[in-house]
Amino acid sequence: MSSEGAPTPPGEGARRGLLLVISSPSGAGKSSLSNRLMQMHPELTLSVSATTRKPRAGEQDGVHYHFLSVDEFERRKAAGEFYECARVHGNYYGTPKKEVAQILDRGCDVLLDIDWQGAQQLWAQRDQDIVSIFILPPSMAELEVRLRRRAQDDEAVIAGRLAGAADEITHWAEYQYVLLNRDFDETVRKLDAIIIAERLKRPRQTWLNGFVADLLSGL
Fold first, then answer.
1. Most buried in the list 42, 57, 73, 170, measured by CB within 10 Å?
2. Quick one: fold of 19-47+108-217?
3. Which comes out higher in pLDDT, residue 171 or 152?
4. Residue 61 DSSP symbol
């Protein structure tokens, strides 16, 4: 068969987006890794959570969070408008369904920075779209060093974060990928490889059915 009249592969956007869930104990490097991935992949969108806490200085509604009243949050929760939600330190946090679904439908990817509880809730609803990654620290001693290096918390808070880290780590086996963040650049390379491979999985290539049908029609 000549190349004339051959089916034309679609553009890069003709795929199903993925939900990239990254979890880790506090201090393991999740935020820094996520920021680097966002720089490397402009089509990767950070999910904007809804919350009932008050905005901090410089935070903008709809950019950093969707700031809601408790009544409004509870109304939306009752209406099933969140993929996952939890109460943390007296405030509600949740992942809105509508905007996440819209991003996925455009063939773009959504990055969610949530803990294991949120990941479990999300998995129950969007298991086909999820790529879950857990980030481990090299050691608990190194984790403590990183938490102290921040110089943001007092001793009581650091002790609480270390205790919370131990509990968080017990859920590592619930994730599809587990990375040891010993070297930041190497961990970034592994995350990048995961994203590329997951985007190429057959179920996410929404153009394939039509393309193969056209391909075979020319036989």
1. 73
2. Rossmann fold (3.40.50)
3. 171
4. B
